[in-house]
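Help! Submission page says 'invalid entity' but I think these are all valid:
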Amino acid sequence: MTHFPHLHWVWWSWNLVYDLRYMLAFEFMRDLFEAGTMIAIVSGVVSYLVVLRRSSFAAHALGHVGFSGAAGAVLFAVNPFYGLLAFTTVSGTGIAVLGKNASHRDVEIGTVLAFMLGLGLLFLGLYQGYATEAYSILFGQVVGISPAQVAYTFEASVPVLVALALVFRQLVFASLDEEVAEAKGMPTMLLGVVFMLTLAVAISIAVTVIGVLLVFALTVTPAAIAVRLTKRPLYSVLLSVGVALTATWVGSFVAFYEDYATSFFIVTIVFAIYIVVRSIPLLRRLVRWVDGRARSFASSVAPPLRRLSGRVSGRSRSEPSPDVLRGVPAAGRPAAPERPAPASTDPDGA
Amino acid sequence: MSPEVVRGDHLDVAYRGTPVWRDANFGIGRGEFVAVIGPNGAGKTTLFRLLLGLVRPERGSLRVFGEEPRRGNPKIGYVPQTHVVDRETNVEAEQLVRLGFSGHRWRPNLTPRSWRAERATTDEALGAVGGLELAKKPLGAMSGGELQRIFLAEAIVAGPEMLLLDEPLANLDLRRARELVELVHGLVQARNVTTLLVAHDINPLIRCLDKVVYIANGRVATGPPAEVLTTRSLSQLYGVPVEVLRDSRGNLVIVGGEDSHPDPAA
């Protein structure tokens, strides 16, 4: 698949600054970066709530529901973004109202999802045009992003970020301890609807870059990475946004020079970070194991070495050479100074 | 006698159309430590939902702090039986306690003074449950007893006058259960906070209790443990012969009650 068909002759100069400036000289790349930045911020924040509320299936379903909305919009010659937004917000509200705890409503979500995908298939069948439209909805934009898309990405993002800033703490509380929040008189269902609406918008804007099928990589995985690294909600959100931004920026940058889809690179980067983070405990155990082996090896080798060096230098065994003792515990050392010597060259100085 | 903070008269309660218990009369005084005991499905949690204003009685009157029960009453701290927190919840305990203090408020706290106040109150609540060293520990990595202490801190951090604890002793071994009961009892005495604690087993509690609310067979019996937990009163409650046995250390065994408990749906 050709991502930027008119640019297939572009190649790396191996000077990153030059490459970056060259890329940003193209207006459609600036547009892509502007929209991508907004998308990454919104989905980074929303993904934390998705992970906290265990709503990843809802996130997955909303993306697919969005596909049907976009297909319908294409059929009726409306901007696909409005179709996406309409279908995801309506379904999201429905899911939030049906089940207080969306994660426990898999059956309902799946049922709605299947019906919505069926609608999408019908729309596709009725549409007599090219399949490329459907393809770009599924996998992200084939050709860069239009200035109009940048405009509505901003228009949709700002209210979402404002809403999240206002009710973030309340949403975290209602997600972490729903029953207590309810007993305290919080409108938990309304908060659930607000969450689903922000998720719907996040997905609708992200789809333009990454596509319906891969939207998971921006609306779930960044926070899944973040919560493994920090246990404070605020830090998790910042880290999640950082991951989403890194993936979007680097992915778009690489895709400008390499002739493959942006969404592929974004998904790959997110996945790579996820794998690294998941393997941290394993790496830790490995390091501890290697360390343990090295220590046991050192302790089995050090005494004979010490004896050997004592014999070579002609000293008695109780006064081994200081060189050999570097890094060996102080137990067998000759009289240590009263206080630890400072780093200066003259430890005995007045 | 201390003034009553809860008063129920001739209460009938239903859960999803099925009657749970009928004609309950009870009063709970300020600063009392009360155990709510009874078999599964007898309507112990329903009592809490009633006090929290989450369900309405079918009949009768219920007063909580002299008024109709209402959702969001700041005088009540609540620890539910089930929680969203599980092994995957990588959020430090302190954050949950802080949310218990200010998570339900819509006014953002943006001044350093309110931050300091929140921090001080959170630390105080964590200290009161002996959980200061747990402040930075993720909820997902905690044992059952540690989690219960954090939930308790989350409930007391807002300074309630009444605590409702739903099955805090479930999943705890006997020693941890006793420790938690002593902790709660200490809080009851130090803060003069009325506490209702739902439990299956009366024995870890019996030394600290002021009152027992025994719910069984669609009826509610209330009174001091020595009056309620007797062969005569429980037989009356269940409507079949029930025997209360006592061992040498004061532990109670109730024989016959659970077997004869009729299916509440029937």
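Support: the input was valid. A stray whitespace character was the problem, and the output above is from the cleaned input. The CA atoms of residues 33 and 210 of chain B lie 5 Å apart.
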